[in-house]
Predict the structure.
Amino acid sequence: MHSLQFTAESSSNGLLQRDFTVGGVPGVLWSPAHAGGERAPLVLMAHGGGNHKTHPAMAGRARLLVTGCGFHVAVIDAPGHGDRPRTAHDEAEIAELFRARAAGEPEGPIVVRYNDHLAQLAVPEYRATLDALQELPEIGGAGPVGFWGINMGTAIGVPFVAAEPRITAAVFGQHWPDVLAEKAKLITIPIEYDMQWDDEHISREEGLALFDAFASAEKSLHVNSGRHKELPRFEADSAARFFARHLGAAVTASA
Amino acid sequence: MHSLQFTAESSSNGLLQRDFTVGGVPGVLWSPAHAGGERAPLVLMAHGGGNHKTHPAMAGRARLLVTGCGFHVAVIDAPGHGDRPRTAHDEAEIAELFRARAAGEPEGPIVVRYNDHLAQLAVPEYRATLDALQELPEIGGAGPVGFWGINMGTAIGVPFVAAEPRITAAVFGQHWPDVLAEKAKLITIPIEYDMQWDDEHISREEGLALFDAFASAEKSLHVNSGRHKELPRFEADSAARFFARHLGAAVTASA
């Protein structure tokens, strides 16, 4: 088993940020700055395609969960993203995506196959990261663990959660059913799923089909008007409340 | 114009409840008990079929909005409901609904036509109630007004809101598009819409079609697993936060 090595530490506004690596994969762990090491639930996050572990969307969600719910929050760079090198395959797929975009061709088939490739690499990395994080005394191995990933974070998260019994609640959204629906059928924990009603890349039928595939007895779909990149900010607040309900924390007004 | 007459008053746990009538229609107004008459936004609610103005669902939602957001909340008995007499037409439609239910026939066609009939009576009553409530100094004529009605409350609310420019945000849910979609196309204010993914009366296609019909630039659909009567309690919390966002109030932890 890979152990976790902290590489940097900083804190601001009640948020302790610790950079780490597990088996060479760089990640970041956010925690309450003044908790005195007391044990609290963990939420694992996965970032979107083209982004990285400390993108403002990640840091903003972490702030909601840490300062609003008292949770620990961790995210790692996906393969080919953030501080990790791109392979020739990464470069070729990204070039193909940009070519399709410039030509006005559908991006879906390229995103689906490239994200599936990345997910196959990332799932064992997430598992190793969770193993290592649960060795920390302030997280531990017995507490509930959430997962939150939209877009590419869903492409990684659905196969990860489908095979990971330690995850007890998950927020997903904005992906295609092609590869993921079969994995979603294996997921029975509570989920919240986001989709955009006017998504120019993912059709309504595709979004609804992936939501429908989850076997969870308790699942919620949040549809909002707007295009792919217009997911409203209040859905992050909703996700934080979802995790508070399922991982067991009181939400303060800031979340 | 009918004026509002208060007929009873009580208060408990920070909630002032005043029964009233407007033009013979009985209603109830909930307000913060210790506000000292200061002006606050109003949310009009409409109850579901077979229920009444002080059904626990109404009182519970009122508590979220009053104690959580500081709003005033009012609801009136629908025609043939609560303290209002049933006509021969009401009795015949209710008997027909029970007959269809016992025979295992679809309830939708009966509910749609009966709710449409009641809505035609109720819309002018809601307008008169709003006129009268806005004469109260603690509500006034200039503030934002919300509308919240699910099931029959949506059948009344959609035509009411479509013709009522004073309503600035609305929560609807769980009805058929047959009669309401044409009215929904006239509505452009922010809405939140609830539907149940496993509704035994309203198909997914029907629920999605009514949500799709709203012309609102900002609209959210909340789908939850479960049957018609299993709308999760946390959707009431979500609706309260929706009104807090749009009518302008800070939500306290209790909402």
Remarks:
- The first helix of chain B runs from residue 56 to 69.
- The longest strand of chain B covers residues 4-12.
